[in-house]
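Section handout, structural biology tutorial.
Before the tutorial, make sure you can parse a SMILES string by hand: atoms, branches in parentheses, ring closures as digits. In the record below the ligand is coenzyme A, and the chain has 200 residues. In the tutorial you will relate the predicted structure tokens back to the input. Do not try to memorize them.
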Amino acid sequence: MADDRLRLLTPEDLPGILSIEKASFQDARWTVDDFLAEMERPFSFVLGLFPPARTLPAGFAPPPVPELSGPALRRLPASAPGAPRGTPARPRAPFPPKPLGAFAAFWILYGETHLMHLAVAPERRREGLGKAVLRAVLGFSVARGSGKVLLEASENNPAALALYRSEGFRVVGRRKGYYESGRADALSMTLDLPPAPCGG
Ligand SMILES: CC(C)(COP(=O)(O)OP(=O)(O)OC[C@H]1O[C@@H](n2cnc3c(N)ncnc32)[C@H](O)[C@@H]1OP(=O)(O)O)[C@@H](O)C(=O)NCCC(=O)NCCS
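Predicted structure of the complex:
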């Protein structure tokens, strides 16, 4: 995969997946076992997007850390003993790993992609991550010879419907009472995919 922010997820990613899942779905929420089962099926994929940290707003200044100002700061050695001047006194803590920002779970079977799950971490919504992970699913599907994508979305989910429509999906059917214990219909949507480009 060309974009190093994107990769197929594995059981080690489950804490991040489940945290997004819990915050995103009341209805039909998947369990650990559901995700593990999907990760084992050869035609099933769980793709994750690890976005860079959000850019800090213009003019942002970090608050002073009291223990590291004034006399306390002056007591810190400028360099590690014996090391060339300017070398930090302590090794830096490793940078924390990037948290999962969004994921999508889908099947590619008999030339069709069935998108079953797509969610973005609540604190990272409206930044384009939903669109980015959806486009990654489309690209991944084209590369594997899929000719179309099928999905269901609740009629009461305007964000998801707008996202899918913005990528060209069209409504092709309605399933009565599919969500919210029978209170909401599912709209069945589809998108035709172009053929995979020839490889040279
Ligand atoms: C639906 C969801 C995946 C959208 O993710 P997102 O990262 O916020 O979406 P993006 O920032 O990529 O937005 C892409 C487009 O989707 C539409 N959109 C996204 N959120 C929207 C909202 N709250 N209201 C209206 N339109 C919205 C817009 O058309 C947007 O394009 P724009 O920003 O240029 O206007 C996200 O809200 C989510 O995880 N919801 C909970 C889980 C869920 O419902 N998944 C779908 C199951 S079918």
